[in-house]
């Protein structure tokens, strides 16, 4: 029988790690991930992420749902779109998004990530 898996909002992640230097745009951002669940096919993951002030380049192959628990972030698309999100906001970053992830205030989010595999019928065209 499959059981329900709770995702506590107060779980602590691994030791904070620097964002890869080749992706950093501003600051010396650190991030921590506490992955709470991954499916057997390793395509779906969820947990808690924390990030410190700074900005870095992102390129999403996965779809990500986020609920910001604390802090403030700004997503700047390569198309010049700009979205600022604050604690309490929920949002989706679709696969194919490219741009800059900027943490304006130390942030903590609940995430659920789905990365389509080429053979599952949901891959990007």
Automatic annotation (TrEMBL):
InterPro entries: RmlC-like_jellyroll, RmlC_Cupin_sf, UGlyAH_Cupin_dom
Positions of the (S)-ureidoglycine aminohydrolase cupin domain: 41-111
Domain of life: Bacteria
Listed name of the protein: Cupin superfamily protein
Taxonomic source organism: Pseudoxanthomonas sacheonensis
Lineage, opening ranks: Bacteria, Pseudomonadati, Pseudomonadota, Gammaproteobacteria, Lysobacterales
């Amino acid at each position: 029988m499959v059981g329900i898996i709770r995702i506590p909002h107060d779980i602590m992640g691994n030791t904070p790690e620097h964002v890869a230097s080749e992706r950093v745009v501003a600051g010396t951002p650190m991030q921590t991930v506490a992955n709470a669940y991954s499916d057997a096919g390793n395509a779906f993951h969820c947990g808690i992420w924390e990030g410190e002030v700074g900005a870095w380049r992102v390129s999403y192959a996965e779809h990500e749902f986020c609920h910001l628990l604390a802090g403030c972030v700004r997503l700047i698309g390569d198309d010049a779109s700009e979205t600022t999100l604050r604690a309490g906001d929920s949002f989706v970053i679709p696969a194919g998004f490219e741009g800059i992830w900027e943490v304006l205030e130390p942030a903590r989010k609940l995430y659920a990530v789905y990365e389509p595999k080429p053979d599952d019928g949901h891959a990007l065209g």
